[in-house]
Specification:
This protein is mainly alpha-helical and 106 residues long. It contains 5 helices and no strands. It has helices spanning 3-21, 29-32, 43-64, 72-82, 98-105.
Amino acid sequence: MNKRSIEDTNKLYSSMMKKYTSIEMPGQYWMLHHIMPESIMYVPSYLLAAVRAAELGKKIAELYGENWWELEEAGKYLKNMMKDGANINLQEFSKLDSRVFLKEIT
């Protein structure tokens, strides 16, 4: 990979992180988290996943009730969303509202 393509990739990564997460992230991050043994490098990804998981839980509870895990329909909903090759529409349940996650942990 030449210097120009690395710079272009850094810019692309930074712009995509901002577009899809609303978080400003240095473009070089994509290169570091693969080689750094520090867990802090993974924190943004883990936090995004935790927020989205909490939002998905809230959506499922809204659709199927508090005991959603007892309903076959809820399982079908999740299986369809998580099947191989699925094109997950994050807007269906996620607005990256960290308050949903914070409510779970506080």
